[in-house]
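Quick one: co-fold with manganese (II) ion.
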Amino acid sequence: MCSAGRWGLFRPSGFGGLLHLKLAVASDFHFGFNADAAEQARTALLDGKGKADVLLAPGDLFDTRVPRQETVHEAIRIFQEAKGAGEGRISVTVVEGSVERQLDTNPVIGIYGTHERRAKGLTNVIELLHSAGVMVNCHARKVIAEKSGGKKPDRVCIQGMGGVPEEMAAQALKLMSFKPVPGCFNVFMFHQSVRELIPQDESAMTMADLPDGFDLYVNGHIHWRQEFHEAGKHLIIPGSTVVTQMKANEANPKGYYLYDTDGRKAEFVATKTRPFFYRELKFDSALPQQVLAEAREALETVLRTAPHSMPQVKLKLAGTLAGGVPQGALEASSLEREFGQKMLLSVDSQMNSMSLRDKIEFLRRMREQSKSAAEVGMDILKERLRQKGVLPSELPANCEGELFELLSQGEVDKAMALLMVE
Ligand SMILES: [Mn+2]
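Sure, here it is.
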């Protein structure tokens, strides 16, 4: 089982010849998120197994810290099926400190992400599967995959760090001081946000924080695929295999990266997933029936594009309703009922009943009459009450100020109580 320090001291023999290893990198399966998660992960892993020698999975393989046993069971069966890429020519050695263990299979090599991470002292599900021999948890270990059959053995060494809170990533990488292994093609696997790619994430680590000298860096966490070169570092992020956030950039094809160590090239392989469409419609002073008609048309077009596929659709409605039309008049949820048999529809209605014109009018009044926002607000409240047919004489004497005050602070019950007096 344990060879005598074969990798512990690392043979200095430089690697000279061509490498002919293929790596498949698939990530963020989010097992347990929905029914698509397991099926789409399986499709990507088995397709990768057919084309690559080594399968890598950089984190968020499960959706929750303590997944249901049914979910774990389903994942185990998929990981078992995915074992054995490279047609029996790959031998895998796991190095942990000074202990080396050669495996009798070629399992998926992964790490835990932010979704599986648990507090110190508690077991995360990726480590659980590692102990059970279902997959390899690469966190703080070296995993060497060696391909036999050529003139010289081709070796790839994978090292990695499981997900940590973003603000701790740079420090954690420094403390773990990862070093590439001579004689191997070196891969570094992690699961973090990267500031160069997500600039709004100010706590995120940067490319410079990654350990130097690795031939390839693979990351999970970001759900849409990216390939990035920065200061000699080649980073690939395959994105998730399932749509979890329903953002516009999740509508791009999903799949995995196939990386060839020979040409040092990554190729994205799209795999079959439930089609996902993101549609955003903008309106200006529209009537509810106009909004619904346009929305229906957009959804019908989606159905024509992806017939018989039960697509997942996110429809965002933005802009303004015609003046005087209350927000409640737009029944966007009726669309979900109407199309529910043909698609997995989620409508996000952000229609505002104050039109741009109204907003400009509001600001103009504030400036011209040099009134405070509260005073202008009270004028508008009076106007709206008049529109509703409520005459000032019908209100309790001099209550508008108090009524406005209560409404502006969200004290609806107290405002109601005020109107109930007398
Ligand atoms: Mn994720």
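If it helps, The first helix runs from residue 35 to 51.
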